[in-house]
Specification:
The complex is a heterodimer of chains A (about 400) and B (about 550). Chain A is about 20% helix and about 35% strand. With about 400 residues, chain A is of the alpha+beta class. Chain A folds into 3 domains: about 140 residues, 2-Layer Sandwich (Gyrase A, domain 2); about 80 residues, Aminomethyltransferase beta-barrel domains (Alpha-Beta Plaits, 2-Layer Sandwich), CATH 3.30.70.1400; about 80 residues, Beta Barrel (Elongation Factor Tu (Ef-tu), domain 3). Chain A starts with 15 loop residues before the first helix and ends in an 18-residue tail after the last strand. The mean pLDDT of chain A is about 95. Chain B has a domain of about 210 residues: FAD/NAD(P)-binding domain. Helix content of chain B is about 35%, strand content about 20%. Chain B has a 5-stranded parallel sheet, with helices on one face. Chain B has a 4-stranded mixed sheet with strand order 1-15-14-13, with no helix packed on it. A 4-stranded antiparallel sheet of chain B has the order 19-20-17-23. In chain B, α1 runs parallel beside α17. Chain B is globular. Chain B starts with a strand and ends in a 12-residue tail after the last helix.
């Protein structure tokens, strides 16, 4: 018998049996090799549960790396654009890291579990890059991707639900993280822009954790969701996604596909005063020369989502495209994230048009729709940041 | 001491239409005042807490018609408005079965086949016909009604739009359209379906809020009126406003305040002040007077002209037309606080369709008998009801684990008959209780333990709705939605453009085109007309469509 075969195709994640039992739509997708739900029942109702009740989504396929040791802080500080020394133990920071040209390799959340203990969660495989970045530092780097499972509990009743599950986190502020029980860490983080938490536990404990939340969720409208619903919420919140708003530069095969944090709208997150970090010189250079591109939030006329549409200036010159576009059911706007070539989107922001092709029962229609650039996220609700949170 | 002040515009009544008009006028730079007789705003789009821990949408209870263009123009989500769709619905029979309407199309087909295999594709053709009619009518909602009697270029333009739309239908479809607009929902359903239960489930939308039976001509249009709305582009879908229907009014109120508008509650109108055929302002019951060259009434046309305008100020023909305007109360409302989710023994556990609209009327004949009772001045012995438990979806409506149920009841008369005498005075507490009891009796068909679940209830007769909200006879649409009083005939022939015989006085409520429901279209259309006449037409935003 050959013992060296690997599974072909997608493999089940830590709570797949629960998801399989809930799936009516039978709509699955691959996420880092795992079977992940695109839709469990209907995307529409799953979406509304995010903004009205509470939702559960398995984020275990995320890559998770543990960085420990006396040199961990210094090593990460040299790797990412933010000042890691300003992330206190028990806090989580959103971070990006670049190559020497200032192009974004990936983004993710950095959990500071202790003075010399970090966990980095991200979309892309990053083990070898972390080992490279750790060269010369007194650090230990472990790939925890298949050891640590994560469940994302998001929605206005999520705090109430956790309380009913015996986990009172009323004092936890956004971006706090804490060990609440042996083997269970909770962070007040998420990808929805709403009130929400992420729960982290051992791979084998994920099923029991799911059941515990499920039992407590009965009175709080808990619903399991898939990626399609989550994606609407993340665009409303204005969050970028790897492979959509930017191409992780290590994975892009074509030249010039990389984008800098400044071009993605995160210039203010670059901490210049912290000393050297990867890409600093190139980014400084860009500050002087100006960006090549800008990623913007746009509000488009009409009701048809403009995902992938090209953008024109004065309806003639092609100046960019929509990276993610969706009808926003909560803000009742036709929203999108879009990349524009400089100077459009920076100094020239008027007379911009989206070119949309719509198929209405067999008849194609081309529409030019005006767009306006927004500076704030589309969905902002004080309940997302209230501490202690409200019951709903 | 009485107050007086001068404004650019005054709106009487802070219902959702009055508030909508107010928002557009204030945004156009008019100094605008809204006066409201109640101590709260919203008219029939209100959320009220009458029992600790529970919130009732105690008049209107679901949302679909609210025009998305207006929501976007006025940026209502920024002021807290969140509309959440619900899925499906069901009609429960007396023998432990049900017909479930499901949003999953394949499941719906299986469910229809369970009752009648022939009705499966019949449903698709029914849906196609209704959807085509919706597509035809929706463009008219945010326009003035075309008036074929006028030769004014603007009216001719509207008429040309109608002709163009109608011509595009083709001869056969146009014929079908005219049939559809005039026929009864009963006849229409009989043409499509064979299952009594399915017909009864679908017929409800044709009679809700209307003093007509399922076989009365014109009720097919009433069904259309309930289907032409949408939630996020899903035409025909209905939803809840998070926090109850008051969330719509409160968002409009905040948008109005941000635009610089002023609201005075507890300020009921005494009369519209008219001089030389022109409006000059209003006088309140408390003696305050306010002046304005523009005054808009959010009240229905009967209440406006028969109670608050001096008869000498309006032509006799107009007065007669207002008097004959049909605005009959036909429905009651029961709002219930439940101690837990009631059991529906017929339905599978956690069935998604329980989150939708639930009914117990199982045939068109039964519905027609209910109408017969109403004609005689009694409530229906076997009432039709449209009941929902929004707290299954909206966590803000009831304490966790407990629930709020809204029950729309039809038919219930305004002037109840007792011992041969028809009078609103017959709505005693005893009569109210008897009505509720009759509803619970019928409701046991779906929920046998309903009486044990009730913690608190509020029973509202047509008379109660008139007294509190101000709707004449408690008619929810500010005038029935029949062809004789729609489009250019709504509310009164010759006055479909929101104007009145009094210069500067406008009608902005649901008595005007395109009619009732929490749509805000009359309010927005009226605002456009007011601004145009005030020479500020360019201040009206182009609709965000």
């Amino acid at each position: 018998m050959n013992t060296h075969t690997v599974p072909i195709g997608l493999v089940p994640g830590p709570v797949h049996d629960r998801l399989e039992a809930l799936s009516r739509a039978k709509s699955w997708m691959g996420w880092a090799g795992y079977i992940s739900p695109a839709v469990l029942e209907t995307a529409e109702f799953e979406y509304f549960a995010i903004r009205n009740q509470t939702t559960l989504f398995d984020i275990s396929p995320m890559h998770k790396y543990r960085i420990t040791g006396p040199g961990a802080e210094a090593m990460l500080n040299r790797m990412v654009i933010r000042d890691v020394t300003r992330i206190a133990p028990g806090r989580v920071g959103y971070v990006m890291w670049c190559d020497q040209d200032g192009m974004v390799i990936d983004d993710g959340t950095l959990f500071r579990l202790g003075d010399a203990d970090f966990r980095l969660c991200c979309q892309e495989l990053m083990y070898s890059w972390l080992l490279d970045a750790g060269w010369g530092f007194d650090v230990q780097i472990i790939d925890e991707s298949h050891r640590v499972a994560g469940l994302s509990l998001q929605g206005p009743t999520s705090w109430s639900l956790l309380k009913e599950a015996g986990l009172d986190l009323g004092d936890m502020k956004p971006f706090d993280c804490r060990q609440v029980e042996p083997g269970l860490m909770i962070s007040r983080t998420g990808f929805t822009g709403d009130l929400g938490y992420e729960l982290w536990t051992g791979w084998d404990g994920a099923g029991a954790l799911w059941d515990r939340l499920w039992a407590a969720g009965r009175n709080w409208g808990l619903r399991a969701i898939g990626y399609v619903a989550l994606n609407i919420a993340r665009i409303e919140a204005g969050f970028i996604a790897a492979g959509m708003e930017f191409q992780p530069v290590h994975a892009a095969r074509r030249l010039h596909r990389g984008r800098t944090p400044i071009e993605l709208g995160f210039g203010r997150m670059v901490h210049w005063d912290k000393g050297h970090f990867n890409g600093r010189r190139a980014l400084l250079g860009q500050l002087g020369k100006g960006s090549r591109y800008s990623l913007v939030k746009v509000d488009i006329a009409g009701f048809k989502p403009a995902h992938g549409a090209l953008i024109y200036h004065r309806k003639r010159r092609e100046v960019g495209y929509v990276t993610s576009g969706v009808w926003s059911p909560t803000t009742k706007r036709n929203i999108a994230l879009a990349e524009l070539k400089a100077p459009y989107g920076t100094t020239r922001t008027d007379d911009l048009w989206v070119e949309l092709y719509v198929n209405e029962e067999g008849r194609w229609d081309r529409r030019m729709l005006p767009l306006t650039i927004q500076d704030k996220p589309f969905f902002i609700n004080p309940r997302a940041r209230a501490t202690p949170p409200g019951p709903f | 001491m009485t107050q007086n002040d001068t404004y650019d515009a005054i709106i009487v009544g802070a219902g959702h239409n009055g508030l909508t008009t107010g928002c557009y006028l204030a945004k156009a730079g008019l100094r605008t005042l809204i006066v409201e007789k109640n101590d709260w705003i919203g008219g029939a789009a209100v959320s009220r807490s009458l029992h600790d821990g529970w919130t009732y949408s105690n008049c209107s209870y679901v949302c679909s018609l609210l025009r998305r263009e207006i929501v976007r123009d006025l940026d209502l989500p920024r002021f807290g408005l969140q509309v959440i769709p619900y899925e499906g619905g069901a009609t429960f029979t007396g023998d432990g079965d049900y017909f479930a309407y499901m949003s999953d199309h394949d499941a719906l087909r299986r469910e229809i086949a369970r009752h009648s295999p022939r009705d499966v594709d019949a449903y698709d053709r029914f849906a196609q016909t209704v959807m085509r009619q919706c597509r035809f009518i929706r463009p008219f909602l945010l326009r003035n009604a075309p008036d074929p009697t006028s030769l004014h270029p603007r009216d001719l333009g509207e008429l040309a739009f109608l002709v163009k739309q109608a011509h595009g239908l083709g001869a056969r479809e146009l014929g079908e359209t005219i049939r559809f607009w005039t026929m009864s929902i009963g006849d229409f359903l009989d043409e499509h379906f064979e299952s009594d239960l399915i017909k009864a489930h679908l017929a409800g939308s044709g009679i809700i809020g209307t003093g007509l039976g399922v076989y009365s001509p014109g009720t097919a249009y009433v069904l259309l009126h309930h289907y032409m709305g949408d939630v996020d582009g899903s035409i025909g879908a209905w939803g809840f406003a998070r926090g109850g229907m008051g969330a719509i009014s409160n968002a409009l109120g905040q948008a109005f305040a941000e635009a610089g508008g002023e609201i005075r509650t507890g300020a009921g109108i005494d009369r519209f002040r008219v001089r030389d055929g022109k409006i000059v302002g209003i006088a309140l019951e408390n003696g305050d007077t306010y002046d304005a060259p523009i005054v808009a009434s959010n009240m229905d046309v009967k209440r406006t002209f028969l109670r608050h305008v001096d008869r000498a100020c309006i032509p006799d023909d107009f007065h007669k037309a207002v008097t004959r305007f049909k605005i009959r109360g036909s429905s009651a409302k029961i709002n219930i606080a439940l101690d837990r989710m009631p059991a529906f023994p017929a339905a599978p556990p956690n069935a998604p369709f329980l989150r939708g609209d639930l009914h117990c009327s199982t045939s068109l004949a039964e519905l027609e008998r209910g109408y017969d009772d109403w004609k005689d001045g009694r409530w229906s012995a076997e009432p039709y009801f449209d009941m929902l438990i929004p707290s299954q979806i909206d966590p803000t409506m009831a304490p966790a684990g407990q629930h709020m149920m809204t029950v729309f009841v039809q038919y219930a008369p305004y002037d109840l008959e007792v011992d041969g005498v028809r009078s609103g005075a017959n709505w005693t507490d005893g009569a109210r209780d008897a009505l509720a009891d009759c509803v619970y009796e019928k409701m046991q068909q779906a929920i046998p333990d309903i009486r044990d679940r009730i913690v608190h209830s509020e029973v509202r007769t047509p008379l109660d709705i008139e007294r509190e909200v101000g709707l004449t006879e408690g008619n929810i649409f500010q005038g029935e939605l029949t062809f004789d009083q729609l489009l250019f005939n709504r509310p009164v022939p010759g006055y479909a453009d929101y104007s009145t015989p009094i210069d500067g006085l406008y009608m902005v409520g649901s008595s005007s085109h395109p009619g009732g429901g929490v749509m805000a279209a009359p309010g927005a259309n009226a605002a456009r007309e007011i601004l145009r006449r005030a020479g500020r037409g360019r201040k009206m935003p182009r609709l965000a469509s």
